[in-house]
Amino acid sequence: MSGAATPVRVLVVDDSAVVRQVLGKLFSEAPGFRLLAACSDPLFAQRAMATEWPDVVVLDVEMPRMDGISFLRQIMASRPTPVVICSTLTTRGAPTTLQALQAGAYEIVEKPGTGLRDHLVEQGRHLLQVVAQAAGANVQALARRATAAAPPPAAQLPADLAAPAAPAAGGAMVQTTERIVAIGTSTGGTVALEELLQRLPVNAPGLVIVQHMPEHFTETFANRLDSVCQIRVRQAADGDRILPGLALVAPGGRHLQVRRQGAQYHAVVRDGPPVSRHRPSVNVLFSSVAAHAGRNAVGIIMTGMGDDGARGLLEMKTAGATTFAQDEASCVVFGMPREAIKLGAVDQVLPLSALDGAVTGRVRAGRGR
Predict the structure, then answer these.
(1) Domain stop point among 148, 172, 194
(2) Are residues 167 and 138 in the same domain?
(3) What is the model's pTM?
(4) According to the UniProt entry, which residues carry 4-aspartylphosphate (predicted)?
(5) Are 294 and 182 in contact (CB under 8 A)?
């Protein structure tokens, strides 16, 4: 942490003695942090919190006496506080950890099933960064998400990731009846996307979405959205056609791009190095949309930390697309929208509650905002 006058107070809650030992040492020794306690379950954590309230809670999901999601909901209902979930990311566990995000968790950090001690030591720097960023999160937005969430049902792109050459059309991109909407988001985006997509009618334009998530989560996330939305939602596969009433979510660990064939748009799913520190990268998606859709597209950048998507959104705007950013008050983290606004890539800044109008064309963009 740089420039922090007061250390971030951290409470670790995990039934694994190894995790408590490693994370306790990490937060005790790292400058800018102060470990309040490392507790084996939420009931012990409640006692520690009665003495001194933490700035951030690092929380496991599966624990005795009270599970982590129940404890998370209790925290968000009584005194909203940033919570970082440190959980084993497996296909089996993905629905549970997605429930944690629905309940108001700030972020999820991977905890493997094997090689736990070595992995935690290696990932310590990343966890410190996430916890430091969580301490500055918009807690009111997290609390609103937790309250509103419905209970879950039962830089220059590398050469190999540059957008494929767009088809020649006499110089300018030919406008077609096909419209696509490209959305990029990160921290806080899982619940924000659900809120947005639930408002969309079945005839909404086709959507392509990058949400920064580990690869085990994206299919489960897409399936959950599909179960609660009028539009169809699924994880993108290479060659999928982008159709009205369908949202395609980039697979975790792979980049998503758009390719135009005649008057139709198709998804391109490919491997490649991280771009803007992410794979999938919002910049990769937006850059391809700029090249292949131009003014036939709408770009939306939403809550998330960092600057992924800012440059790509500027490319979209330059190519004639209409561009929007989620406003600061409704973002959990305003980093990505802020960077896009600073670059001049955004036509209009809107609250989350108005972004469905941006998707369906009910909002008229105002250049220069």
Answers:
(1) 148
(2) no
(3) 0.83
(4) 60
(5) no
Chain position carrying tokens 């539009």: 231
User: What pLDDT, on a 0 to 100 scale, did the predictor assign at position 2?
Assistant: 46
What span, in angstroms and rounded, lies between the C-alpha atoms of 42 and 83? 13
Given the residues 308, 327, 347, 356, select the one marked as catalytic: 308
Q: How far is CA 267 from CA 259, 270, 285, in A?
A: 6, 10, 10
Measured between alpha carbons, how far is 138 from 188 in angstroms, rounded to an integer? 10
Annotated catalytic residue within 212, 255, 278, 292: 212
Q: What span, in angstroms and rounded, lies between the C-alpha atoms of 236 and 270?
A: 11
Domain of 35, CATH number, reads 3.40.50.2300
Number of domains, the chain = 2
Establish if 3 belongs to a structural domain. Answer: no
The label of the residue with tokens 């997290």 reads 142
pLDDT tens string 203-251: 999 999 999 988 778 998 999 999 999 999 999 999 999 999 999 999 9
Q: In sequence order, what are the residues at sequence separation of 6 or more whose Cβ sits closer than 8 angstroms to the Cβ of residue 9?
A: 34, 36, 52, 53, 54, 55, 56
> Are residues 78 and 227 located together in one domain of the fold?
no
Q: What are phi and psi of 149, to 5 degrees?
A: -65, 130
Q: Name the burial class of residue 67, with classes exposed (0-12), middle (13-18) and buried (19+) by CB atoms within 10 angstroms of its CB.
A: middle
Q: Are residues 68 and 28 in the same domain?
A: yes
Out of 40, 87, 186, 287, the active site residue is 186
What domain range is 259 assigned to?
159-360
pLDDT tens digit string along 172-213? 454 445 789 999 999 999 999 999 999 999 999 999 999 998
Whether 212 is a known active-site residue: answer yes
Residues 175 and 308 in one domain: yes
Cα gap 88→115, rounded to integer Å: 12
